[in-house]
Amino acid sequence: MQVRLISVTNPLIEIDNRQLTPEGLMAYCARVSSPHQETPDYEKLLSYCIQNKHWSVFEMVDMTVEITTSRAISPQILRHRSFCFQEFSQRYAKAQTTEKYKPRRQDVKNRQNSLDDLDEATVKWFDEAQEKIAQLAFESYEEALEKGIAKECARVLLPLATQTRLYMKGSIRSWIHYLEVRTDPATQKEHRDIAKAVQAIFVEQFPVTSKALGWKYGC
């Protein structure tokens, strides 16, 4: 799993000979009806907007991240329809490798939960099973390509653990919602790890907004 920042909206206007920050741009747009639109301070304003659920302000700025994960997790990410996505195409390019996961025990009381208390022997068996399946799948995949079978057909031989890469772009409003949902313990751990990595980027890029939300670096 890897996550990295690709882009953040870059304001082109200046106030007091200083270029606006992305958060400054949100505040500038929020003050469209105010005679004090160019007021440089915005911490109280953004905090007020969050506390009173004035979310449209946070649609004025976008952020794009690159996510490397497995085909098992990417469909969960793609469900967030307020975002725009570009994902690695297995029709166009060859798949290269798989992501490996540490197994957890099924929670019998909650089908959407798992528990990290499996014995070492079971963990070892699962690790070896992943390696065996990945090796067989990729050997068959390569053989299919050598026989001239189209990538869009050969990909059916690949496991869900096959690695993929996608770009995820959305407004700060969308990111706030995504992070509130996907950092919750109810989210699958592998997806939650991605969300936490995105949240660390978010906190660094939007410190005032993050403070108002109660998010801290490393949270």
From TrEMBL:
Q: Which InterPro entries match?
A: Thymidylate_synthase_ThyX (IPR003669), Thymidylate_synthase_ThyX_sf (IPR036098)
What range does the record give for the signal peptide? none
EC assignment: the record states 2.1.1.148
GO MF entries: flavin adenine dinucleotide binding; NADPH binding; thymidylate synthase (FAD) activity; thymidylate synthase activity
Looking up CDD domains in the UniProt record yields:
ThyX (cd20175)
| PANTHER family membership | FLAVIN-DEPENDENT THYMIDYLATE SYNTHASE
**Record NCBIfam families:** thyX (TIGR02170)
Record protein name field: FAD-dependent thymidylate synthase
Organism of origin is: Chlorobaculum tepidum (strain ATCC 49652 / DSM 12025 / NBRC 103806 / TLS)
